[in-house]
């Protein structure tokens, strides 16, 4: 006789119960209210990451001698997230010395050029512009 497949027949063997030690108590140095307040205060601040730089954009940064420091990348990431929350998918980001095309949807910088180059360009397939001349 063949063994019966319990899934097909609907016959399930009960699992052995897991024994719990009732005598163990969980101690905490914080009350529930304090813990909840701590969690709420830290979780209400969104974590904005620096944008991902595509290989193409990285290559353009090197070729064109464009330097963007860590604080600037953080600001770009924040503005890109803000643009994304407003429905922007692809954006032109204008800095003092550079212009970037970025995907707000993917948080990725697609290409980079200096501002002089950007003056004579036509930008297509973008639905938002972020001007950050002070960065």
Protein model, in words:
By secondary structure, the chain is α/β, with parallel strands linked by helices. The chain has a domain at 52-132. Helices cover 34% and strands 19% of the residues. It has 5 helices and 5 strands; from the N terminus they run H-H-E-H-H-E-E-E-H-E. It has helices at residues 6-9, 32-43, 55-64, 70-85, 115-118, and strands spanning 52-53, 90-95, 98-103, 108-114, 128-132. It has a 5-stranded mixed sheet with strand order 1-4-3-2-5. A hairpin with a 4-residue loop joins strand 3 and strand 4. The longest helix has 16 residues, at 70-85. The radius of gyration is 27 Å and the shape is elongated. The mean pLDDT is 82. Keywords: Cell projection, Cilium, Flagellum. Pfam families: Flagellar_put (PF12611). It comes from Domibacillus aminovorans.
Summarize the structure.
By secondary structure, the protein is of the alpha/beta class. It is 34% helix and 19% strand.
Comma- or semicolon-separated keywords:
about 140 residues, alpha/beta, 5 helices, about 35% helix, about 20% strand
- From the alpha carbons, calculate the radius of gyration and give it in angstroms: 27 Å
Q: Can you tell me the residue ranges where pLDDT is under 50 for at least 5 consecutive residues?
A: none
Largest sheet: 5 strands, mixed
Can you list the strand order of the major beta sheet?
A: 1-4-3-2-5
Query: Average pLDDT across residues?
Result: 82
The number of distinct helices, counting runs of at least 4 residues, comes to 5
Termini gap: 78 Å
Helical content (DSSP H or I, runs of 4+): 25-40%
Along the chain, the helix and strand elements come as: HHEHHEEEHE
- Class derived from helix and strand content: alpha/beta
Protein name: Flagellar protein
Pfam family, one: Flagellar_put
Keywords: Cell projection, Cilium, Flagellum
